Amino acid sequence: MWKASLANVRQAHRLGAGSRSIWKGSALAVPTIGRIIRPANTSTILRRSYHEDVVYGYRVPKEFEYPDYSPEQLRNRQQQAALVCLVNAYRTTGHRATDLDPLGIQKRQAIPELDPARYGLTDSDQIFDIDGILAVKAEDGSTKLSVAEIHQALTDLYCGHVAFEFEHIPDTAEKRWFADHVESTSASYKLDADKKRRFYELLARSEAFDNFMQKKFGQVKRYGLEGAESAIVALDELFSLCNHSGIAEAVVGMPHRGRLNILVDLLKYSPRALFHKLHGNAEFPSDLPASGDVISHIASSPKLNYGCSSDLHVTMLHNPSHLEAVNPVVAGYGRAKQMYLFDKNTDPGCALGDRLIGIQIHGDAAFTGQGVIMETLGLSNLPHFSLGGTVHIIINNQIGYTTPATNARSTLYTSDIAKLVNAPVIHVNGDYPEEVARAMRVAFEYRKMFRKDVIIDLITFRRWGHNELDEPSFTQPHMYKIIRARESVPKQYERRMQEEGIVTKDNASETRSAFTKYLDEELSASKDYVPQADHLKGKWAGLTMATEAVTTLDTGVPVETLREVGEKSVSVDPAFHVHSRLTKHHIQPRLKRLQDGPSVDWATAEALAFGTLLKEGFNIRLCGQDVGRGTFSQRHAMFVCQDTENVYIPLNSIGGPQGKLEVANSNLSELAVLGFEYGVSIQSPNILPIWEAQFGDFNNTAQVIIDTYISSGETKWLRQSGLVMLLPHGYDGAGPEHSSSRIERFLQLCNTPLDMAAESSQTQNPNMHVAIPTTPAQIFHLLRRQMQRNYRKPLVVAGPKTLLRLSAATSPLEDMAPGTSFKPVLSDSLADDPTKVKRVVFVSGKLYYDLAKAYTERKDEVASQIAIVRVEEVCPFPRLELTREMLRFPSATEFTWCQEETMNAGVYTFVQPRLQSILPKGAVLKYIGREPLAAPVTGISSVYKAEQAQIVNDALGGM
């Protein structure tokens, strides 16, 4: 038995545990990937690792032994080097000589390296012992074959209707496994009559469904599967393999092509529900606040069984029309579900990927063109993000809308981008359903062995245009001349089955007519169909759909508990050597503030919110770039030992039953990572998922997730999310970028009514909450409120930067005690006599402290007539709180909104009409702030300072 190189050991362990351990000694076997254990004592420091998965610790099993070449095999390889070169050529370049295009447009290539004569193997009858060179055998079971037999075997294996790319994988063990598996199992891969009949029925029903839809709903864009019907065989085979291997959950994301076909036939989606919607009706009960979505975005979550003792639960997630945006959501949903399964599973040997599989279906043009693909692949092997392997299926129509492959990518194959993570790729001709099933079996076995992503490039065609109302020959006349002249894939396979005697002509006719009759019956029944809602079930049972935003909720905690949690948040074993600066400037000051007061800072209040929620049994996932330390070195939720680099998260050792805090330092991605966290958020209401942007404007590159999921997911699909976005925001002279979180964009997405007059009957139930807290107590209550409410809503926090260490921005523990809560409006506390106030200045964010400082310094007659009111939660708009606050100032005649952002940014455009509607009759809201600007702010420091001073002066100036 051979032993792996040190590099292989490190790589395999990194995939499982994200370890940066320093391995000593070279006699280490390759470890298997990512097995899970639970530390008996959660305070025990886990494996030495910077990126430790703190939800569950990892251990490395004893070994993953891979048989080395025997002495005889080594002699074969040395003496028959020419044969080794030929075999390696087929394994490396054979895919370029395969018959992969169902349309025959892309021809087989002549690859010189595949000619035996190139290596001096000119005698076709010469016999070689291929043991240790090629994992095939002669008919009599021996390893002695002629050159002609070897050449034919290699051609059949690597140049047929299936092509394999795996030689780019850097790990030798993986490459050897892949070659041996393909070569040793291909000859034995035989389908029985029942399996072939199953495939035929799937294909026939698929075609019958699309024909029925064309006949009954010919003017509807249905994005049928025609031309790519083998995709339904691929999925069916995958589901069967999962069910028989003990996998309990499959999470699926796919775009629109073929979605309805797969939903109805494989995933048990009710045809009458579909037809009900196609007739223009809503898919949800009318009493629910849901706008619904188009048919190509609907979802299903059935239990399937392929003759096993337990079911396979398949969850196909809703998707938007932004093509591949669903992929990171699938990954996040699957990760959260997997953690839940580990909690339920008592088997300590249960490994990452044993109980759940991720399945992502892609379009060919999108796979190459959409950056979210690369970002999601980049997460696939990272701790805190890995699913233990995802199976990717590219439904390769060889065209994107009207764009041919030559214009759609700069690579040979659409799948080449997957080599980013060294994933093996299996190309297969969609005209051959049995070969598609064989390709899926190889992919599944690879994923099962190595717990890594694998790609199926299913090469098909699109019978109609991008949708059935298109005329594709406008732009692809040659391709569509071929398509319209050829027989469909189901008809081709039907003919083969008839030739083999598995299906008769009468059987075939009955299969199609029976399914068509069933669809007709469902269409008739759809007239009386009553929509059902599938939300708030399972883990979500007990929650409700909000009808009015709850902004005030007692989220206080006893002071003694706060002190206990605060002390635990910085407690480490004396043997664990924390950096001396952290001890002096973080740990000791926190302990002193907790005991002696008078108040605590922002990071402490956040830790108190985390810790108290953990004590109440909630799990928290804090994710983003550098979140463990915090961008501004303020958080330090994790400590790294200065001697060993072991990682320790104190809040996971509060004591007693508690939830887990997972600190997921992400890679440099926003789009995929935010999509991942959204997926986590919709899987369970008992996880508080928090994504923190390094700076607020980093959310710009995740806008698709914000638009199509976070802001609208509940409205479209009734899927609640408690995701929190922490976006550091505030002008501090840093220039155009990183100053603004573009909070105006979030507010534009909110559905709060414009008419906020006190007599208005309109209620507020916004799709998400947007807050700009200015005190530690406020962020404490905001975070706790997320989990204490009986519903979930996304929360956008325009968080602080300079306030993190501002001495004025602190809070006493009493502000977090029982009976306290988040305050959407913080009353003026500076005016000596509210009855004398003439001007009310409304403000949000850190600008308040600039105004308060100037106000205190001036304290003249003019200043005494000014009140400064903080709006801490902008959406839902605090109508009642602001109305009550204005009653404190009966003499006020001036009302201004003051902000440091430009007039076309910040919250002004949102608050102006709403605030104006509750002002006294005749009063007009005045704006104080920067003028409209294309950039968030100037990059010239002297101009910035002058503008900032002018804003303060205008707010507190003469009246």
From TrEMBL:
Keywords: Oxidoreductase, Thiamine pyrophosphate. Its cofactor is thiamine diphosphate. GO terms for biological process: generation of precursor metabolites and energy. GO terms for molecular function: oxidoreductase activity, acting on the aldehyde or oxo group of donors, disulfide as acceptor; thiamine pyrophosphate binding. The keyword Oxidoreductase applies. The keyword Ribosomal protein does not apply. Residues 600-806 form the Transketolase-like pyrimidine-binding domain. Gene3D superfamilies: 3.40.50.12470, 3.40.50.970, Multifunctional 2-oxoglutarate metabolism enzyme, C-terminal domain, TPP helical domain. Coiled coil: none annotated. CDD domains: TPP_E1_OGDC_like. Pfam families: E1_dh, OxoGdeHyase_C, Transket_pyr. Belongs to the alpha-ketoglutarate dehydrogenase family. This is Transketolase-like pyrimidine-binding domain-containing protein. It comes from Coemansia pectinata. The lineage of its organism: Eukaryota, Fungi, Fungi incertae sedis, Zoopagomycota, Kickxellomycotina.
